[in-house]
Specification:
- By secondary structure, the chain is mostly helical.
- Helix content is 78%, strand content 1%.
- The chain has helices spanning 3-45, 51-76, 84-98, 103-129, 135-153, 163-170, 179-194, 198-208, 210-215, 220-246, 256-267, 279-298, 303-331; strands spanning 172-173, 177-178.
- Helix 2 packs antiparallel against helix 10, helix 3 packs across helix 11 (256-267) and helix 12 (279-298) packs antiparallel against helix 13.
- The longest helix is centred in the first third of the chain and has 43 residues, at 3-45.
- The protein starts with a helix and ends with a helix.
Length: 332
C-alpha cells in the first residue's frame, strides 16, 4: 500500500469521525436550507417576498434563537431550564413599564434587566449544583416565581417600548438588511469564542460524565452555576428583544418560549442527556420552528392543525437525526 493510499485512508477515517460527531448539526442545517428555500420560493410565487417579510422572519426568530442558545448551556450539562419563558415574561414586563424614552434610560434599564435575568439563573444554578436538587424541580418552581412577578409588574397587557430601541433591534439597516441579522452575527460570534474557553470544555465534560469530570478536577459546581446564569442572562436578552419586536408588554407572552426553546435545542442536535451538541445547531432549530409557522400560515393551513404539523416535523427531524447517527456509527 502506497503512502498516498494510507493518507487517503486516514483522511477518510477522520472525515467519518467528523461526520459521526456532527451528523445532527449538519442535518439541522440541511433541514433549515430546505425549508428556507421552500419558503422563499413559495413567497416569491405568491408575491409575498419582500424586505418586510424577511425582516419579520428574523424578528420572530431572534427571541426564540437567543432563548435557545441560553437553554443550550444548561442542556449541555445534562440539565434543563423550565424558567426560560417566565424570565422572558418578567423582563418584557419590566421593559414595557419602566424603560424611558432616552438613551441613558434605555441603557440603564437594559443593564438592570440583564442583571435580574443573570441573578435568576444563578439562583437556579446554586440550587441545582450546591443543593443537589433536580433541575426540573428547581426550574419549575422558579418558573412560577418569575411568572407571578411578571403579573405583579404588569397585571394587564400594555406599556410601551421606546421607538428608537425597537428600531435599533427590530428595524432595517438601509432598508435592505434586517437589524436582527447583525444580532445573529453577534450571538454566533459569541458562541464561536465561548466554544474555545475552559468553561465550555467543563460544560461538555459535566454533561458527558459528571463523576469522571469531578475526578479529573473539573469544577463541576462552578460549571453548573455558570450554565444556569448564562441561561438566565440570555433569557433576559430574549425578553428585551421580544419587547423591541412587540413594542409593548405582556406578562404571559414568554410562556411559549419554555418548550419551544427546548424544541429548538433538540431539533439542533443537542443531546438532552448532555455532553453533545452545539448552540449553532440550536440557532438552526430556532429558524426551522419559525419557518414552519410561516409556511403553514402562508399556505392557509387551518390554525387548529398548525401545532400538529409543527410536532410532526419535529418528530421526523429527530428520527432522521437518530437514523443518520446510527448509520454513520455502523460505517466507522
Amino acid at each position: 500500500m502506497t503512502a498516498l493510499q494510507l493518507n487517503a485512508g486516514a483522511a477518510g477515517a477522520r472525515l467519518r469521525r467528523y461526520a459521526v460527531r456532527n451528523a445532527s448539526l449538519v442535518l439541522s442545517y440541511l433541514v433549515l436550507a430546505a425549508m428556507g428555500l421552500y419558503y422563499l420560493s413559495f413567497a416569491a410565487r405568491h408575491g409575498q417576498l419582500s424586505v418586510f417579510s424577511i425582516t419579520a422572519v428574523f424578528n420572530n426568530t431572534m427571541p426564540l434563537l437567543i432563548a435557545a442558545v441560553g437553554q443550550t448551556f444548561v442542556v449541555l450539562t445534562g440539565g434543563i431550564d423550565l424558567s426560560v419563558g417566565s424570565i422572558i415574561s418578567l423582563t418584557n414586563s419590566l421593559a414595557a413599564v419602566h424603560m424611558p424614552d432616552s438613551v441613558p434610560g434605555v441603557l440603564g434599564w437594559s443593564g438592570i434587566i440583564l442583571i435580574i435575568g443573570g441573578m435568576a439563573g444563578a439562583m437556579n444554578g446554586i440550587l441545582v449544583a450546591v443543593g443537589r436538587i433536580q433541575p426540573i424541580l428547581v426550574t419549575l418552581a422558579s418558573l412560577s416565581i418569575w411568572a407571578g412577578a411578571a403579573l405583579f409588574v404588569l397585571p394587564q397587557p400594555g406599556g410601551a417600548i421606546p421607538q428608537g430601541f425597537s428600531a435599533i433591534l427590530a428595524g432595517n439597516a438601509w432598508q435592505l438588511v434586517p437589524a436582527a441579522a447583525f444580532t445573529l452575527l453577534v450571538v454566533a460570534g459569541f458562541w464561536s469564542l465561548f466554544r474555545r474557553t475552559e468553561l465550555a470544555v467543563a460544560l461538555y465534560a459535566v454533561g458527558d460524565d459528571e463523576r469522571s469530570a469531578r475526578a479529573n478536577g473539573v469544577p463541576v459546581v462552578t460549571a453548573k452555576i455558570a450554565a444556569y446564569t448564562l441561561s438566565g442572562l440570555f433569557s433576559a436578552l430574549a425578553g428585551l428583544y421580544l419587547s423591541a419586536v412587540t413594542t409593548s408588554g405582556d406578562a404571559t407572552t414568554g410562556a411559549v418560549y419554555t418548550l419551544t426553546s427546548i424544541a429548538a435545542v433538540v431539533l439542533g442536535g443537542v443531546s438532552l442527556f448532555g455532553g453533545r451538541g452545539s448552540a449553532a445547531g440550536s440557532m438552526a432549530g430556532a429558524f426551522v420552528l419559525t419557518l414552519i409557522v410561516n409556511i403553514l400560515f402562508s399556505a392557509n393551513i387551518n390554525p387548529l392543525l398548525q401545532e400538529f404539523f409543527q410536532g410532526l416535523v419535529l418528530i421526523l427531524a429527530m428520527a432522521a437525526s437518530v437514523l443518520v447517527n446510527l448509520l454513520l456509527a455502523r460505517s466507522t
